[in-house]
Amino acid sequence: MQIVYLNFDRGIPVLGGKGGSVHVRSVVTALTRLGHEVTVLCSQAGDGNAPPPGRLVTLAPDPGQRAAMAECEHLRLPMSALEDKLTYRELGVLAHDRALPARAVAALADQGVRPDLIYERHALFHVAGMAIARVFDVPRVLEVNAPLTEEQARFRGLALHDIAAEREAKSWLGASLAVAVSEDIAMRLRAVGVPNSRILVGQNGVDTALFRLGESHGAEVRRSLLLGDHPVVGFVGSFKAWHGVDFLIDAVARLRAEWPELRLLALGDGPLRAAAEARAAALLGDAAVFTGSVPHEAVPAHLAAMDLTVAPYMPREGFYFSPLKVIESLAAGRPVVAPRIGQIEHLVDDRVTGLLYPPGNLDACVAAIAELLAAPALRRRFGAEAAQRARAGWDWTALVSRVLDRAVGAPALQQAAG
C-alpha cells in the first residue's frame, strides 16, 4: 500500500529526540518493514536523528502575521486578539491547518503519490487529516497519544480552549480507526461518542533488535562517563513537572547514606533540566551525570550502563501515558522501579520485571531501589524476563501490523505486504 503518515504537531519534530519523535519514526519504520511505501508529511522535520525510511516532506507553517490576521477575521474575533501571545500563536496553528489540505494534496501529486491509507498523529487544533482522507476517499487511522486540549490548558496555557476542544472531538469522531495508547485515552474517546468498534487500544512499542545490546556496550558508556564499577540508577525521558525527576534525586540522596558509591545517570532534556541539575549538584555533588539528549540509537548502550531504571511519575488524576522509557528499559533488560499508576501497572509486572510503589511515596520508592541494589541476581532475573516479554509482545512491527489489520483487514494487509 501507499501510506501517508501525517505529523502536523510542530512540537514533535520527526528527527527530534523526544518520545513523540521516536514514536513517529518507529511507526514509519514498522510500516516500511511490513512492505508498504510511506510518505511522511510534517510541519517540522527537526534534526538529531537519522530519518525514517521513505519520503519526508515538510509543509512548514507561514510564520508571518498575515495568516494569523486572516484566521482572526475568519473566526470573527477582534483584531485586538492578536495582541495576546497565546491567541496569536494558536491563530497561526489554525491558519496552518486551514491551508494544509490543499498543500498536502499538491505535495503528494509532486511526489507521484496517491495514498491507500492516511495514518495520522493527533495534533492540537488540527483537522486537516480528515479533509486529506476525503480527497482520496481512503481510511484514516488516528493515533491519539494524549488529550492535547486538556494537556495544553493545564501545563502550557490555552486561549482558544473551546475551539481546540471542538476540533479535537471532531478529529477523533472522524477517524476510521482511533488508536489509543492507553485505556484512559480510550475512555476519553468513548466520552465524545467514538464507538468501541472504531477504537483500538495499542500501547507504545520498541525496536527490540535495537535494544538487544550486550553488557560490553554499557561498559563503554561507563568508561566514557567515568562511572567505573559504581552502582548506577538511571532515568531516561523529558524533564517536565509530571516526570518527577526531583523526586528521584531526593530518593538517590537518601540511598547514598547506605550506598555512598551510588550514581545517578539521567538522559534527556526538557524545561526543568537546569533546575534538576542544580538540585542534583546540591544534594548529590558529582554523583549525578546528566547527558542531555542523545541520539536514539545510543539510548540502548546507556541503558546497558545502568543497573536499574526509575520512572518516577508523580501522582495525577487521569494518567493517560504509555511511557516509551519504561518499555525501552524493559526491552533492554533493565528492571524498572515505578509508581503503581495508569498503564504502568500493565507494563511493569510487580516482582517479575520490576518493582511498583504507591505513587508519590518516597519511602517506598527508596525501599524498592534499595532492594534491587542489594540483589544483583534479582536484577538479572527481572531483566531477563522483561527483555523476553518485550520481544514477545511489544515489537513495533507487530503492533503496527495489528493496527493495519483493524484498519484495512487482514487479507488486504497480506496482499500489500506481499
Descriptive tags:
7-stranded parallel β-sheet; 2 domains; Rossmann fold; 418 residues; alpha/beta
Structure report:
- This protein has 418 residues and is of the alpha/beta class.
- It has 2 domains: 2-205 and 395-417, Rossmann fold, CATH 3.40.50; 215-393, Rossmann fold (3-Layer(aba) Sandwich), CATH 3.40.50.2000.
- It contains 17 helices and 13 strands.
- Strands 3-2-1-4-5-6-7 form a 7-stranded parallel sheet, sandwiched between helices.
- Helix 3 packs parallel to helix 4.
- The longest helix has 27 residues, at 85-111.
- The chain is globular, with a radius of gyration of 22 Å.
Which helices and strands, and how do they pair?
Layout: E1 2-7, H1 19-33, E2 37-42, E3 55-58, H2 65-74, H3 85-111, E4 117-121, H4 128-136, E5 140-144, H5 148-155, H6 161-173, E6 177-180, H7 183-191, E7 199-201, H8 215-224, E8 232-236, H9 245-255, E9 263-267, H10 273-284, E10 288-292, H11 299-304, E11 308-310, H12 324-331, E12 336-339, H13 344-347, E13 354-357, H14 362-373, H15 376-393, H16 396-408, H17 410-417
Helix pairs in contact: 1-16, 2-3, 3-4, 5-6, 9-10, 9-14, 16-17
* Largest sheet report: 7 strands, parallel
User: CATH H level of the largest domain: which superfamily?
Assistant: Glycogen Phosphorylase B
The string of secondary-structure elements, in order, is: EHEEHHEHEHHEHEHEHEHEHEHEHEHHHH
Determine the N-to-C terminus distance: 10 Å
Strand content: 5-15%
Please state how the strands of the largest beta sheet are arranged side by side: 3-2-1-4-5-6-7
Secondary structure tally, helices: 17
Total domain modules:
2
Contiguous uncertain segments of 5+ residues: 410-418
**According to CATH, what is the class of the largest domain?**
Alpha Beta
Q: What name is given to the CATH topology of the largest domain? A: Rossmann fold
Radius of gyration: 22 Å
* Dominant shape: globular
Q: Specify the helix fraction band.
A: 40-55%
Structural class: alpha/beta
Q: What would CATH call the architecture of the largest domain? A: 3-Layer(aba) Sandwich
Average residue pLDDT: 93
**Strand segment count:** 13
